[in-house]
Amino acid sequence: MSQRAFHYEQKRLENDFVALEPFDPAIHATRFVKDIKANPSLLTYVSLPIGDTTEDFIEFYGRHFGSSPEACIYVVFDKIVISKKGESDLKDNYAGTLALTSTSPVNACTEIGVMISPAFQRTHVATNAIGLLLLYTLDPLPAGGLGLRRVEWKTHAENAASRRAALRMGFEFEGVARWNRVFPGGEVVLPVEALEERNGTKGELPGRHTAIYSIVWDEWDEKRPKIVALMNLKR
C-alpha cells in the first residue's frame, strides 16, 4: 500500500544494492517497532514516541504520516545480504527507514530523515538508500525525478555521526538553529530550568539545537556524479 496522502508519487526505488519500499503499516510496523526496541540507541537524538506496542506506533503513524501530505516513510532493504538458502529474501534484510518530511510543492523542498539499523550503518546501505532518495527528489522530471529546488538534512547539533554523514553525501552546512524545537524524547536534551524561571511555564519541555544542511537544485548537476560514485563503491 503506497502513501496515498503524500504530495508526490511515492514509488518504489531500488538499485543493485538496496530497495526502498513505501511504508505499509500492515506489513512493516511490527518489524520497525522490533528494530527500535532492539536498538534503543536509534532514539538517542530522535524524538519518536513509538509507544509500547505495534498498535501504538500504527496509531502514531496514522496521525503524523498516514494522513499528512507533507510526509512519507520508506523501508530500506539490503539486497546484498543473501539468505541461508542462497537466495535474496528482502523480508529478512530489513535495514531501517528513510523519511521525507516538511514537503512543500509550493516551495519545491523536502527534508530527509534517516534511521538505519546499527548493523547496516557505515555500509553500502545508508549511502545507496540516501543516494536513491536524492536522485528521486532532485533529478528533473524528464529523468524520472521530482525536480525539487531544495532537500534539507536537519539533525541534533550533538549528533556527530549524522553530521558527518550529511557532509559525506554532499550536503552543505548552513548553520545551527539554536533552541529551534522542543525535544521531549531522546537522551541528549538541553535543560530548561532557567527558561521555566524566565517565562513562568511549568513543565517546560527540554529542547535541542539543530544543525541544518542542504543540497539545492542549481548545484545538483555538479554534485550528482560524486554521489553516484559513492553509491557504486563496493563495501
From TrEMBL:
An example molecular function term from Gene Ontology annotations: protein N-terminal-serine acetyltransferase activity
Q: Keywords in alphabetical order, please.
A: Acyltransferase, Transferase
Q: Where is the N-acetyltransferase domain?
A: 43-193
Q: Which domain of life is it from?
A: Eukaryota
Q: What is this protein called?
A: Acyl-CoA N-acyltransferase
